[in-house]
């Protein structure tokens, strides 16, 4: 006869340890492992320092460039904008790194960059126009007169002519800004080729210009409005500026906005910058007045240091000489 053990469940103490079923035991093991992992940051294989070092060495061995990631831009509110604006120069081997901000204005910021293998200078200045530039060109009619640009079809047209997007549209404003910056670069290229004392221009991509940096690794060249010089140096600076203004005029350009704020002085030599408002004297009626204003302004800027010139007479001589008429 079979015997059975009868268990009275009411006599079992629920607090006594008992081996859990497999499912319960498996869940408990997973819970303990998850708890042990809490507080430990997850890292991908690619983020491992040794892996990153290997990837960098592999890129260098293959001749590929490392990603453009200047430390000088870390933490800047406009860091992404500046990075995207300068990456093309890096990819062109024009710059190797961004070293520091040099000057910030209403429409643009200038950065000091180390030169890349494609440049003859160790230091370069990168001028990056900000997005607000799209809203800043409201009073430029005098300077746009006679300018030509390429429309969407690649045809050379006047900036105010047919085939140019409307100024009151987003597309039109973008086209206007691109044309304005491209014109500034072209004017500086022309000036440099004529022998005008200006930083050597290297490249222009989108909203950014790249040119020779005036200064050294520790000091940027001061503007004319920031200097204090003796009479001899002041006269030398003035004579150099008058010569550059005349050379530029001979190439059918007038700066149009020359002042002590857009002239740099370095080692006794003046450097003219900011050619965005340069005009062609063959077009429009206000060219002579702009020329006179440029000459008068530079003369007034250096007069406190003893530099002397009859500014109006000098401007007239340049103008009539340009037209081929006697003074």
Q: Summed up, what is this model?
A:
The chain is built from eight helices and nine strands. It is an alpha+beta fold and 327 residues long.
Structure commentary:
With 327 residues, the protein is α+β, with helices and mostly antiparallel strands. It has 2 domains: 77-212, Phosphorylase Kinase, domain 1 (2-Layer Sandwich); 221-324, Transferase(Phosphotransferase), domain 1. It contains 8 helices and 9 strands. The strands form 3 sheets. The protein has a 5-stranded antiparallel beta sheet, with helices on both faces. A hairpin with a 2-residue loop joins strand 8 and strand 9. The chain is elongated, with a radius of gyration of 33 Å.
**Spatial shape:** elongated
Strand order of the largest sheet: 1-2-3-7-6
Low-confidence stretches: 1-7, 14-19, 150-154
CATH superfamily of the largest domain: Phosphorylase Kinase, domain 1
Q: Treating each run of at least 4 consecutive H or I residues as one helix, how many helices?
A: 8
Give helix % range.
25-40%
Indicate the CATH topology of the largest domain: Phosphorylase Kinase, domain 1
Name of the CATH architecture of the largest domain: 2-Layer Sandwich
For the termini, the CA-CA separation is 143 Å
Mean pLDDT over the full residue set: 82
- Rounded Rg: 33 Å
Structural class: alpha+beta
User: How much of the residues is beta strand, in percent?
Assistant: 5-15%
Number of strands: 9
CATH top-level class of the largest domain: Alpha Beta
């Amino acid at each position: 006869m079979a015997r059975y053990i009868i268990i009275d469940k009411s006599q079992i103490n629920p607090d006594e340890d008992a081996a859990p079923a497999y499912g319960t035991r498996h869940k408990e093991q997973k819970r303990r492992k998850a708890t042990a992992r809490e507080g430990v940051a997850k890292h991908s294989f690619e983020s491992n320092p040794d892996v990153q070092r290997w990837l960098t060495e592999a890129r260098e061995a293959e001749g590929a460039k490392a990603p453009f990631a200047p430390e000088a831009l870390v933490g800047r509110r406009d860091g992404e904008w500046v990075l995207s604006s300068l990456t093309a120069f890096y990819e062109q081997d024009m710059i190797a790194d961004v070293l520091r901000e040099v000057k910030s204005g209403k429409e643009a910021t200038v950065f000091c960059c180390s030169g890349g293998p494609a440049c003859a200078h160790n230091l370069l200045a990168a001028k990056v126009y900000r997005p607000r530039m799209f809203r800043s060109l409201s009073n430029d009619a005098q300077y746009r007169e006679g300018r030509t640009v390429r429309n969407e079809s690649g045809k050379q047209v006047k900036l105010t002519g047919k085939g140019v997007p409307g100024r009151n549209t987003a597309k039109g404003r973008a086209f206007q800004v691109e044309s304005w910056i491209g014109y500034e670069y072209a004017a500086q290229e022309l000036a440099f080729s004529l022998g005008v004392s200006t930083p050597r221009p290297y490249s222009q991509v989108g909203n950014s210009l790249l040119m020779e940096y005036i200064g050294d690794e520790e000091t940027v060249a001061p503007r004319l409005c920031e200097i204090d010089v003796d009479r001899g140096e002041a006269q030398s600076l003035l004579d150099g500026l008058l010569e550059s203004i005349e050379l530029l005029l001979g190439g059918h350009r007038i700066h149009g906005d020359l002042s002590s704020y857009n002239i740099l002085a370095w080692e006794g030599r003046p450097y003219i910058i900011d050619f965005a408002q340069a005009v062609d004297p063959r077009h429009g009626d206000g060219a002579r007045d702009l020329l006179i204003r440029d000459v008068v302004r530079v003369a007034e800027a250096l007069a406190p240091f003893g530099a002397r010139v009859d500014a109006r007479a000098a401007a007239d001589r340049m103008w009539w000489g340009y037209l081929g008429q006697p003074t």
